[in-house]
Amino acid sequence: MSFSRIAVLGPGLLGGSLALELAARRHVDLRLWARRAEPLDQARGMGVEGVLTTDLGEALRGADLAVLCTPVGVMPALAQRLVTIPDGPRTITDVGSVKEPLERSVGEVLVAAGRVFVGSHPMCGSELKGMEAARTGLYEGAVCVVTHPADGEQETGNEMDAVCRFWEEMGMRVIRMGAAEHDSFVARVSHLPHAVAAVLARVALETCPDAADLAAGGFRDTTRIAGGSPEMWREILVENSHRVAPLLRECASSLEEMASALERGDETSVLDALEAGKASRNCFDDSVARRSGPPPDSLQTEL
Predict the structure, then answer these.
(1) Could you say which of 2, 5, 109, 172 is the most buried, measured as most Cβ atoms within 10 Å of its Cβ?
(2) How far apart are CA 135 and CA 185, in angstroms?
(3) Could you give all domains of the chain from N- to C-terminal order, each with its CATH number?
């Protein structure tokens, strides 16, 4: 593999699934760190072998890659601790769903200490959380965005290539882009949907919970992600608020237009809105079909 001694910091869904994948590769020296012993015991019970520890120094010493898999709000403090560890890894990446704030809060700390930070975002999470939700195959076939720093703030060429190869070795399709571009895109396809799903679930059932007895696949599919951790998603939405808030207002405006069309019996406007939504959904279906084809010949796809 591109790295042989890998420290995974945080055994949640993404970190735990990564640990399971790495544990299956016997030539990898895996170190798994957690603040508490309980998730480490769960990891052992699921077959994860290696150095499983609550001692951050033990996890990091001698490692050549550290992957920050904690909530994004924890990462800045973790980076501050990481740079105090003697013989810690030079290359650090993460799995956070916002990148610009982490470049500032995490990247600057690491670069000042002579380390290299390469931001990553594996697009394969779910509404589940914790080591108990971890599974092998989570990363297979999914997209991972690897971000390069703005304005050449640090030289990351070799390290960035190595991080890209690492995620490809996990079975992912890697896309490189800038942190700001990433945050703009995920605001539309990840953060906005979560906020809307939360509102939809609340409006539908808060004052009429008995209606849940009639709900089926449509309600399940459109509100599934609302079952995610409110604390984690509060952090994500606040970190990317200047991009998500305008999109929510655009949604509210579109909903108001549809409500007005329904009130005045304007069937043409209602049909236009539904057809526009179907056409945009077809863009997603087409993208999924393209992604299911053979992987590109190059190391990564440039967007």
Answers:
(1) 172
(2) 27
(3) 5-178 (3.40.50.720), 183-291 (1.10.3660.10)
